[in-house]
Design a protein that fits this description.
By secondary structure, the protein is mainly α. The protein contains 19 helices and 6 strands. It has 2 domains: 562 residues, Up-down Bundle (Cytochrome C Oxidase, Chain A); 42 residues, no CATH class.
Length: 624
């Protein structure tokens, strides 16, 4: 068996990335720093979205709650969902992808470093633009799904203008990242890394990039139509004048259901990296996991109308989409059994990343089973717009996506920052979140089946809803405490955390071959890949019975020392940030036309300055 020794870090490798102040972060084109920017921004908005959720639960803790007015409640549930989907789960997945995709592929950076920086600043512009609306008349209040006429009426109030424009900018940011990731995967893999040798997390990033590339244009068309209906009197969704509000539902869910897999597939990729590491065995049926991800991505475009069973589609369409909804559960179930097969017979280490991955499997199965019930048209019609649906998608997107993301944070934190998060505090974090998650959302199944509608800001006494709502609110407070423990763990680790070596978990993929944190150029020498899980094969061989046997360090072939001679790094640039700022100013001007045309002009100048400057400046700094 051919093996390679992990390269010995050079002095340049062992140094932490430079810290040149805020200007270095504004001008960076380093994929790792952009990943960190995405990560910290999404955690900030995670706290914002959590506070919005706590207001909702406090309002519903008792009958006839008076914490929020009806108007404030509409803003909270709209912005909570918008924040969590578009400002938290999507960007934190982009944080992982930005940081680790090139490292897992054995590349020095992404294919288009400045486009990568531009996508972050666009994301930040859109996120701040959405949040600004709270201070200029209130947050968006038409639901995160933006159904017409909720999104097109009351044109005198600009809340939904902020929502429609902000989401368009966030969509452009996601498309830019998707093009970048696809190109990186297809053109920048290390020698010997075929597609089937690529790590599963990188595969999931590859798949969701295609999902975003093909789904976002559809909802962008709808968002433009919402803005035009509101501001220049077009009638795309006005039924009284020949428009069709169901058209919006089709456009939104043609994006919205692939979006569900955009949110969950990165977590599935993370779990597929964590389980083999801490089970001390290869991922069971690895190729099946990869092709199941591809199948989910492909089939995700054929199930959107199960969100619309109560809109009068007719029996033929309802039967067709009921069947496709059942079929898409098959590749998801394949992944579940592959993960269980990985755990079975493994030498499990139940540390924090592993606990969050196991929690992901348990909670996601519950969410998946409740989701399959929605493929049955009569059951869906009963459960539609009830708290049963709220329970379902929170088990999928919080119990699934967020638990997978937390597994990834604990797993890769030492690689990013060179320090290990505290294990004891991490386990407290896990159990608080696990208990809080189930206390909050399990009762909602009962509430929904007992007839409690969602998106209602209060309920009367004597309906049998009091106890379960109180339990759910107590659970949300436990969940919030778990998040607070996580934030404390991060703060404590930055101050006095245990220093991590390059490979603290005895892991399997290429990012662990370099120092923690990695050097700016990632690898002194571009690795040559000979196997799936190539780093594992550098450290272990197998005996006649197939058991892993460590290769003594002195018996591992040594690669040439010293860095490659042709290391080129992208030069820093402030132009992507300037272009993003220009977009932000232009958006503000568009909301307040006609006098806002001045801001549109100023922002347009900033945007063009950024784009032209970007295109004219040197591409690289030269030799490292």
């Amino acid at each position: 068996m051919a093996t390679l020794t992990p390269q010995a870090p050079s002095p340049a490798s062992t140094a932490a990335p430079g810290r040149g102040g805020i200007w270095e972060w504004i001008t960076t084109t380093d994929h790792k720093k952009i990943g960190i920017l995405y990560g910290f921004s999404s955690i900030l908005f995670f706290v914002v979205g959590g506070v919005e959720a706590l207001f909702i639960r406090l309002q519903l803790a008792v009958p006839n709650g008076e914490i929020l007015s009806a108007d404030a409640y509409n803003q909270m549930f709209t912005m909570h969902a918008t924040t969590m989907v578009f400002l938290v789960v999507m960007p934190i997945a982009s944080a992982f992808a930005n940081y680790f995709l090139p490292l897992q592929l054995g590349a020095r950076d992404v294919a288009f470093p400045r486009l990568n920086a531009f996508s972050y600043w666009l994301y930040l512009a859109g996120a701040l633009f959405l949040t600004v609306s709270f201070f200029v008349g209130g947050g968006a209040d038409g639901g995160w799904f933006g159904y017409a006429p909720l999104s097109t009426q009351v044109t005198e109030v600009v809340r939904m203008d902020y929502w429609s424009l902000g989401l368009q900018v966030l969509g452009v940011a996601s498309i830019a990242s998707s093009v970048n990731f696809i190109t990186t995967v297809l053109t920048m893999r290390a020698p010997g890394m075929t597609l089937m040798r690529m790590p599963v997390f990188s595969w999931m990033v590859f798949i969701i990039s295609f999902l975003l590339l093909f789904s976002l244009p559809m909802v962008t068309v709808g968002l433009i139509q919402v803005f035009l209906d509101r501001n220049i009197g077009t009638l795309f969704f006005d039924a009284a004048n020949g428009g069709d509000p169901v058209l919006w539902q089709h456009l939104f869910w043609l994006f919205g259901h692939p979006e569900v897999y955009v949110l969950i597939l990165p977590a599935m990729g993370i779990v597929s990296e964590v389980l083999p590491t801490f089970a001390r065995k290869p991922l069971f049926g690895r190729s099946f996991v990869i092709f199941s991800g591809i199948a989910i991505g492909f089939m995700g475009f054929g199930v959107w109308a199960h969100h619309m069973f109560t809109s009068g589609l007719g029996p033929v369409a309802e039967a067709a989409f009921a069947l496709t909804t059942m079929f898409i559960a098959v590749p998801t179930g394949v992944k579940i059994f592959n993960w269980l097969g990985t755990i079975w017979g493994g030498s499990l280490e139940l540390n924090t990343p592993m606990l969050f991955s196991l929690g992901f499997i348990f909670l996601f199965v519950i969410g998946g089973l409740s989701g399959v019930t929605h493929s049955i048209v009569p059951a869906d019609s009963q459960q539609h717009d009830s708290y049963y649906v709220v329970a379902h998608f929170h088990y999928v997107l919080f119990g699934g996506a967020i638990f997978g993301i937390f597994s990834g944070i604990y797993y890769w934190f030492p690689k990013v920052f060179g320090k290990l998060l505290n294990e004891r505090i991490g386990k407290v974090n896990f159990w608080l979140m696990f208990i809080g998650m189930n206390l909050t959302f399990a009762p909602m199944h009962v509430l929904g089946l007992n007839g409690m509608p969602r998106r209602t800001y209060r309920y009367a006494e004597g309906l049998g809803l009091d106890v379960w709502n109180l339990v759910a609110t107590i659970g949300s407070l436990v969940l919030a405490l778990g998040i607070a423990v996580f934030l404390y763990n991060g703060w404590r680790t930055f101050r006095k955390g245990e220093v991590a070596g390059p490979d603290p978990w005895d892991a399997r993929t290429l990012e662990w071959t370099t120092s923690s944190p990695p050097p700016e150029h990632n690898f002194d020498r571009i690795p040559v890949v000979h196997h799936e899980d190539d780093f594992w094969h550098q450290k272990y061989t197998t005996d006649e019975e197939g058991r892993a046997v460590a290769i003594p360090a002195d018996l591992r072939p040594v690669v040439a020392e010293g860095p490659d001679e042709d290391i080129h790094l992208p030069s820093p640039s402030y132009h992507p940030a300037l272009a993003g700022l220009g977009i932000f100013v232009m958006l503000l001007g568009l909301v307040y036309v006609p006098w806002g045309l001045i801001a549109v002009g100023v922002g347009g100048i900033g945007f063009l300055w950024g784009m032209f400057g970007w295109s004219l400046e040197p591409l690289v700094r030269g030799d490292h």
